[in-house]
């Protein structure tokens, strides 16, 4: 009986000792895993390596970041900066003075026209001018007679009516001559123009030439087109879900889709549409930009609209490593002296949560494992990533 008791006690102690040893082994194993993971996530560099890799240290800072709203559209022109040149009367082209792409100033001659109708119109004006002068004198004479002779009053009234009629006719013909560029005063002095000239009403560039020498043209037939790109603007399409985020004065960055390696241009919203396109479910946004000879009417653009500016914690984009679904930075640990000549610095891979990004900055969200005093690598992070990869390879 006593032997059985002793055996049970010995067995119990053996089991307890075994459990204690197992717990210690598990703890040691976890510690080894943590140490190994820490080693995997750390890179040690000498000061010479840091200098050669041009590694720079920075800190979290506060800056203003905006929500980016994507949009696309075209470069357009105000209605008055795009002009179609045409003849008011049937005529023949005498000469075309410009070619497509030519720069012109307001008043420059573009094309000359001729037709017998132009001569006939001037003759009609001369006749009306002659009748106008005759009736003007006759009216003055009849005015004197009617003042002294009641019987002459009726004649005076008839002359007055004829005078007003010819005056109206004369003024109308003068306006017609003015519309085709002929000075009515010169015509009244006996000068007849067989050729008329169409001039540019704006300063700009000739974009279309459809007429040629000797061509017979009809009224309102377009001959040339002149545009002025100096007042070009963006016409963007913004989806209805973003309407409440758009307002005048907001900054816009845009690129021209057809440009290879297009530079970024800046604009500012000056008009927000209030009509929804029921097909595309978008509204029109207009933005102005500084004149640039590269930005011409009709170019397709892709734009970023900056909305809801907010002050947040940020780091430069160069500080963030984006690796599949993970984002992390390298944080410098305390520098340790290993000898009198060599100083090594340790950098630890640290996960971060990121938010919006623009203007070369990335928002760092609350809950990230860095604080305002953390020494963060803001230049040279990719070098540390490559060194970290070497360390992982050595462990394998």
Please outline what is shown here.
This protein has 396 residues and is of the alpha+beta class. It has helices spanning 2-40, 47-52, 116-148, 153-179, 184-188, 381-395; strands at residues 42-46, 56-58, 61-76, 82-86, 91-96, 103-104, 109-114, 195-199, 204-209, 216-217, 222-227, 233-239, 251-256, 265-272, 282-289, 300-316, 321-323, 326-332, 336-337, 343-351, 354-358, 361-364, 376-379.
Would you write up a description of this structure?
The chain has a six-stranded antiparallel β-barrel. Strands 1, 17, 18, 19 and 20 form a five-stranded antiparallel β-sheet that branches. The radius of gyration is 43 Å and the shape is elongated. Helix 3 runs antiparallel to helix 4 (153-179). It contains six helices and 23 strands. It is an alpha+beta fold and 396 residues long. The chain folds into three domains: 40-65 and 311-395, conserved putative lor/sdh protein from methanococcus maripaludis s2 fold; 68-79 and 228-306, Efflux pump adaptor protein, beta barrel domain (Elongation Factor Tu (Ef-tu), domain 3), CATH 2.40.30.170; 80-227, Beta Barrel (OB fold (Dihydrolipoamide Acetyltransferase, E2P)). A hairpin with an 8-residue loop joins strand 13 and strand 14 (265-272). The longest helix is centred in the first third of the chain and has 39 residues, at 2-40.
């Amino acid at each position: 009986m006593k032997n059985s008791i002793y055996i049970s006690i010995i067995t119990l102690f053996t089991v307890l000792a075994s459990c204690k040893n197992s717990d210690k082994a598990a703890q040691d194993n976890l510690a080894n895993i943590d140490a190994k993971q820490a080693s995997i996530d750390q890179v040690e560099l000498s000061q010479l390596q840091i200098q050669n890799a041009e590694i720079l240290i920075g800190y979290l800072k506060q800056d203003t970041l905006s929500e980016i709203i994507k949009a696309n559209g075209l470069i357009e022109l105000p209605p008055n900066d795009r002009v179609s040149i045409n003849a008011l009367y049937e005529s023949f082209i005498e000469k075309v003075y410009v070619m497509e792409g030519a720069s012109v100033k307001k008043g420059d001659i573009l094309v000359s026209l001729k037709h017998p109708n132009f001569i006939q119109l001037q003759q009609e004006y001369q006749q009306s001018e002659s009748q106008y002068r005759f009736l003007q004198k006759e009216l003055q004479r009849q005015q004197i007679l009617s003042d002294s002779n009641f019987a002459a009053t009726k004649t005076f009234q008839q002359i007055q009516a004829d005078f007003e009629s010819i005056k109206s006719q004369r003024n109308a013909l003068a306006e017609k001559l003015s519309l085709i560029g002929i000075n009515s005063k010169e015509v009244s002095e006996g000068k007849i123009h067989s050729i008329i000239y169409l001039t540019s009403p704006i300063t700009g560039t000739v974009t279309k030439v459809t007429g040629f020498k000797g061509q017979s043209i009809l009224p309102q037939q377009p001959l040339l087109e002149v545009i002025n790109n100096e007042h070009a603007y963006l016409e963007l399409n913004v989806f209805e879900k973003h309407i409440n985020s758009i307002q005048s004065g907001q900054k816009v960055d845009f690129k021209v889709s057809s440009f290879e390696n297009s530079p970024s241009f800046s604009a500012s919203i000056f008009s927000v549409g209030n009509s929804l396109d029921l097909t595309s479910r978008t509204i029109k946004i207009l933005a102005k930009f500084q004149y640039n000879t590269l930005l011409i009417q009709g170019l397709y653009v892709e734009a970023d609209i900056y909305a809801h500016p907010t002050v947040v914690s940020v780091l430069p984009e160069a500080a963030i490593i984006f690796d599949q679904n993970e984002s992390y930075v390298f944080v410098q640990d305390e520098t340790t002296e290993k000898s009198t000549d060599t100083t090594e610095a340790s950098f630890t891979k640290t996960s971060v949560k990121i938010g919006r990004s623009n203007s070369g900055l990335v928002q760092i969200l609350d809950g990230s494992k860095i604080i305002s005093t953390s020494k963060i690598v803001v230049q040279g992070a990719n070098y540390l990533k490559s060194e970290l990869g070497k360390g992982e390879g050595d462990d394998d």
